[in-house]
Amino acid sequence: MTKVLLITSGSGGVGKTTVAINLASALRDFGRHVILMDLNVYSADSSLHLGAFKVDYALQDAIKNRNKIHEAVYMHSSGLLVMPSKISFNEEIEVHEIKKIINWLLGKTELIIIDAPVIFDRTTLKIAENCDEAILVTTPDEISVVKTLKAIKILEEKKVPVLGVIVNKFKESEFELKKEEIKNFLGKPVLEFIREEKSLLESLKLKNPVVYSHPESDATQSFKYVASKLIGENYVKKIEEKEKESLYYYILKQLGLRK
Predict the structure, then answer these.
(1) Which of 18, 21, 22, 127 is most deeply packed, by most CB within 10 A?
(2) What secondary structure, in 3-state letters, does 13-59 show?
(3) Is the pTM of this model over 0.85?
């Protein structure tokens, strides 16, 4: 049975596409069959991130019956299956045309991850009704968090279960909301706090998921941790292992059992 997971947000610029790509890649690393759909049909967000904007056929071609749907599914060099969007497209797309693509994919993959525009977009609102679950992405500033709460309420009104929220670009600066403030305000599980780091910028330049290009990075550990939660796998982030190990050796040193 195919599960459809919507990745969206309450505001732009929060790194929603980065989360969608890397969550899909992390789930693939756990052996799950995943297809990432770039529903940003007028901006090609995932496609630009992955360097897939020069493909012969894309999601829009499948929607408009210009090619068979399976011809719009590509395997990225990282091994991730992607249904990209064209970077240049100005035709009107109806929601029922997108639903046709989703229905065709049902039964052909274990999980469809939809990288969608913000929840207030008309198309996203309608497509949400065809999704089994949703994850929202926010940054730790007050404006984004407030908009995320509004997005949660909209999804709940549409009876779409919100699995939780991923807080992206987290720095723990004095200008951000604190972890507990965000958790208490949203009233939904915070699946992870993704810290801003150099590896994410490098992976963007390489047109690869950070999970693929920087497998040992803290960001990769975070995405794999979230993926493990979604599929019920037991996964301990290596950064946590290092912290535990350092504490262990610190105690031994204090006891005179290590130099």
Answers:
(1) 21
(2) CCCHHHHHHHHHHHHHHCCCCEEEEECCCCCCHHHHHHCCCCCCCCH
(3) yes
Compute the distance between CA of residue 77 and CA of residue 177 in angstroms, rounded to an integer.
38
CA distance 121 to 115: 13
Cβ–Cβ under 8 Å, residues 55 and 74: yes
Task: Report the C-alpha gap between 28 and 201 in whole angstroms.
Answer: 22
Tokens of 20: 């969608």
Sheet of strand 133-138: strand arrangement: 74-75, 81-83, 34-38, 111-115, 3-9, 133-138, 162-170, 190-195
Contact status, residue 129 vs residue 158, Cβ threshold 8 Å: yes
What residue spans define the domains of the chain? Answer: 3-254
Does domain 3-254 fall under CATH 3.40.190.10? My reply is: no
DSSP 109: B
For 5-44, the pLDDT digits (tens) are: 999 999 999 999 999 999 999 999 999 999 999 999 989 9
Tokens 């045309």, residue located = 97
Tens-place pLDDT, residues 198-222:
999 999 999 999 999 999 999 999 9
E strands, 120-180, in order? 133-138, 162-170
